[in-house]
């Protein structure tokens, strides 16, 4: 977690939302499409501006000192 997630107003909002969550409304409360999209993009999938049809070289050398 970063500073924004731990910020008082954000934490207060989360506590309030969790009090209102019911299993039936979980998809609306948790925004699963938004979360799923961000996870996919974190690992390099479905990123705007990338042409996934272009060939890639999986054998790239490590940078020294990293």
Report on the architecture of this protein.
The protein is an all-alpha fold and 66 residues long. It is 50% helix and 0% strand. It has helices at 3-6, 8-20, 26-30, 32-42.
Keywords:
elongated, 66 residues
State the helical fraction. 40-55%
**Poorly predicted runs of 5 or more residues:** none
Could you describe the largest sheet, including whether it forms a barrel?
none
Helix-strand string: HHHH
Structural class: mainly alpha
Shape: elongated
- Report mean pLDDT, rounded to a whole number: 82
**Beta-strand residue fraction:** under 5%
Measure the end-to-end span. 24 Å
Radius of gyration: 19 Å
Number of helices: 4
Q: What is the tally of beta strands? A: 0
Please describe the topology of this protein.
Blueprint: H1 3-6, H2 8-20, H3 26-30, H4 32-42
Briefly, what is this?
The protein has 4 helices and no strands.
